[in-house]
Amino acid sequence: MIWKKPWFQYSIVLLLAFVWGSSFILMKIGLKSFTNDQAAGIRMLLASLVLLPYSIKNLKHLKKKDLKSLLIAGFLGSFIPAFLFTKAQTQIDSALAGMLNSLTPVFTLLVGMLFHKTKFQILQVLGLALGLLGAIGLIASGNGLEIGHINSYALYIVLATCFYAININEIKARLSHLTGMQITSLAFFFTGPAALFYLLTTDFAPVLENPNWALHFLALAGLGIIGTAIALILMNSLIRYTSAVYASSVTYIIPIFAIMWGILDNERITALHLICMLIILLGVYLINKKK
Fold first, then answer.
1. Distance between alpha carbon 127 and the CA centroid of its chain, in Å?
2. Which are the contacts of 254, defined by CB distance < 8 A and separation ≥ 6?
3. Which locations, inside or outside the cell, does it occupy (predicted)?
4. What is the C-alpha separation between 191 and 197, in angstroms, rounded?
5. Contact 195, 41 (CB under 8 A)
6. Element (H, E) at 30
7. Cα 32 to Cα 213: distance, rounded to the nearest angstrom
8. CA 217, CA 127: separation in Å to the nearest integer?
9. What is the reported pLDDT for 146?
10. Could you count the other beta carbons within 10 Å of the beta carbon of residue 41?
């Protein structure tokens, strides 16, 4: 099967890094008209609607023993992080958001060691420490709402990466018997109604006052359909055929694309940001090092 071939796995990692590296700038565009919660809700609702035909088709594969894991995949793996990311990007740049997202493999290894008896080596522990050090440096170097010198909005992304780690380990440990399409479609079968219910409680009148709201909605549509629905099908398939930490390592390539988009959008990238990012990348490299 092609999913078992290393070259194909590498290709999927690069594709996901590009898609998710571009998602931060799409969020920023969407936030020009919509509130952060509306942007997240629209993203989740559109992803759920695109997947709905497959959700209905795959209901026959829904087993009681898988329900908890699918709820974790839907809400901790997508729904809640979507709201955390848009909240964070009201105060921090998309490039910084992309860099902080590199913490996912670090937490994936940590969750695996604590709850799933994942074996580890000394180099991986060193990598874990370096990743956390780099993330702390990125948080401390940000601007926005500050507690002392720490950008508290960056902590929303750190929390999101913790949820991603829990989700990736849960899928690897308990949902590997399902395909990526089955996992994603069944998980979004539960998140769709929650997103719709929330959006019905919000006020869209201010949104319509912006003459460019349709363009901003289009950015969120791309984020929901391509950056969420399609990307998660690929990601969940990758988790099935590789290790949890390997699949999560896509996030250490994401900052490269996020920075590229940030530069094009005239965002300010400092030397400290780049140094901290390199520390994170070195940490994640050590985590994934086999020997």
1. 21
2. 17, 20, 21, 98, 101, 102
3. Membrane
4. 10
5. yes
6. helix 6-30
7. 8
8. 39
9. 44
10. 27
Inter-axis angle of helices 80-88 and 36-57, nearest 10:
150
Whole-angstrom distance, CA of residue 53 vs CA of residue 206: 33
At position 166, the amino acid (one-letter code) is: I
Report the pLDDT value the prediction gives residue 139, as an integer from 0 to 100: 65
Which amino acid, 180? G
Count of positions (residues) in the chain: 291
Query: What tokens appear for 122 in the block?
Result: 């000394």
- Residue 290 one-letter amino acid: K
Phi, psi of 177, rounded to the nearest 5 degrees: -80, -10
Low-confidence ranges of the chain (pLDDT < 70): 95, 139, 141-150, 258-259, 262, 265, 267, 288-291
pLDDT (0 to 100) of residue 43: 97
Is the alpha carbon torsion for 93, 94, 98, 100 positive or negative? positive
Dihedral sign from CA coordinates of 143, 147, 149, 152: negative
Backbone φ and ψ of 44, nearest 5° = -70, -40
Give the alpha-carbon dihedral of 205, 208, 209, 215, to 10 degrees.
Answer: 150
List, for residues 198-240, the tens digit of each pLDDT value. 999 999 999 999 999 999 999 999 999 999 999 999 999 999 9
Per DSSP, what are the bridge partners of residue 150?
147
| pLDDT at position 145 | 40
